[in-house]
Every structure is written in structure tokens, then in C-alpha cells.
Amino acid sequence: ARLMGEDGIVMATGIPDLDGFMNGGLKSGQLGIWMGGTGSGKSIALPQCARRAVAQGYNVVHYTLELNEVETAARYDAAFSTVPIHELNEQIAKVDSKLSFWNAKFGNSLIIKEYPTGSASVATLRQHLISLKAINFVPDLVVVDYGDLLKPLTTYNDEYSDLGAIFRDLRGLAGELKVPLWTATQVNRSGINQEVADVDSIGDSFKKAQIADVIIAICASKEELASNILRLFIAKNRNGPPKIQVKIRSAYDRMCFYDPFGAPFPAPPTMAAATPPLGLPPAKTTGCSPRAKT
Known about the structure:
Blueprint: E1 2-5, E2 8-11, H1 16-21, E3 26-27, E4 31-36, H2 42-55, E5 60-64, H3 69-81, H4 92-106, E6 110-114, H5 122-134, E7 141-145, H6 159-177, E8 181-186, H7 189-192, H8 207-211, E9 214-219, H9 222-226, E10 229-237, E11 244-251, E12 256-258
Parallel strand pairs: 4-8, 4-9, 5-6, 5-7, 7-8
Antiparallel strand pairs: 1-2, 2-3, 9-10, 10-11, 11-12
Helix pairs in contact: 3-4
């Protein structure tokens, strides 16, 4: 849920243990980073946070700089409808039924905006957000997928400084908007083979680690991946204790994270729960597809 504390908004991820160690979630004005290797689940982690916010009735803007809008929307559709992403067309009636319910309830509360890789800066995002404000859409959460693919406002002619500047500007944008901002980044080569990727595993520029308020590394062995198990390692945490692991289970086909002892979303009484992975109790998953591409 979105809470109001002494430090302003606190937006939960929907993973109870993780939120507990983060003192409720990511706070307004803070920059959170999901960190992992290619295919580790970063593109599930970011919508995880966005879906949680939408399911609580809040506005989200998701900027995609790698996948196009259609591919990104399909990931949300799979997660919100609990239909595997490769079966969305085959089960279109079921998808439409579930998404229509949430569209009616929340309306256009999720905006997905695509920019080609390297074409947009933080200033570009700011201008888009200003245009949204003009149509009375004010986000409670901003997601940037992902920060490394933005271009810097000022080029320093070295990647280390450029990336540091981009992430500094992202945190500045979060502070300006007074909302939490989640993004993602790659681990470096050494981090790919580590059992636990810490802050020194962050790719390309350590300045990203210095600037971020929260860094969560997505870790898993080959055996864990085969069993849909992930370890979320809190590498940095300004909201609570760092260096803590939270074990969860994932459903990559439905683009979801699941807490092993509960469900990430409350289920409305009119929706059937999803079939859980690995024999877990039924996951109570809510969602919607209130997309407005602008």
C-alpha cells in the first residue's frame, strides 16, 4: 500500500518481507534500483512495483527504453490476468474479462511510454510528465526501464561519469515530483557469477550505487532458477537494515513475483485466484490493464 509517514509517501513493492525490511517500501523522493544479470527478472521486478501501486488505486508512469510499448503491455496483461504471456491470444476472452474488471475500477491509472534506446534524457521524461499534468494525470510512482539506456543531460565523454549523472538526475526527478522512482541496472561481469551480487557488482559506474537509496539484487543459482526460486538481496537500504536476503518464488510465464508465505496482491471476491507455482497456496493476484499510451 501507499502509506504516509514522517518522510512522506511510502510505496510498497507487494513483497511483504522485502517491504518490512524497507520500513514499508520506497519513500517519496527516493531512487530504488533493481540489479541483476541479463534475464534475471529485472523486467518483472519493475512491473511488480507498478502493479502493486495500481492495485492500490494509484497512478503510475512506466517508461520503457528497451522493449516497445506492446511488449511491455503484454507483460502487464499476463501478470494482471494471471494468463501465461504465451497464451494471451489463445485465452483472449479470459484476458479481456479480467482486465475489463480492473479497467472499470481504476481507469487509465497506468501509462506506458516508449522511447528508443539512448534517445531520451531525464529532461525528456520531465517534459512528458508536464504534458501529463496538463491532462490531470499526476503519477504517484515512476518506473524507468531502465536508467542505463537514458542519455545524460551533459556528456562527460566517459561512461562512468555519464551514468553517474543520469542516475543523479533520476534521483533529482524523484525529489522534484515527491514520488518514489524505481529503475534497474545490470550487474558487472564478476557479479554475474556470484552467489550474492553486492553493491560492488553494479555495472559500469559505482556512482549509481552511491546515489541510490535502495538497491535490490536479484540472485539465483541454476538450481534455484530451475525451481522458480529467487533471492532478493538488499545490497543498500536507507530505509532499514542492508545485507539481508528475501527468498521468493517467481512465475516468469505470468511475469509475477510471489511471496512464499502469502500473496502479493489482495484478491477481489469476483476474481478466481491464479494457479500457484510449485504447489504454493493460491496466489491472490489483482491487476488491471488501464493503459494509455501517450
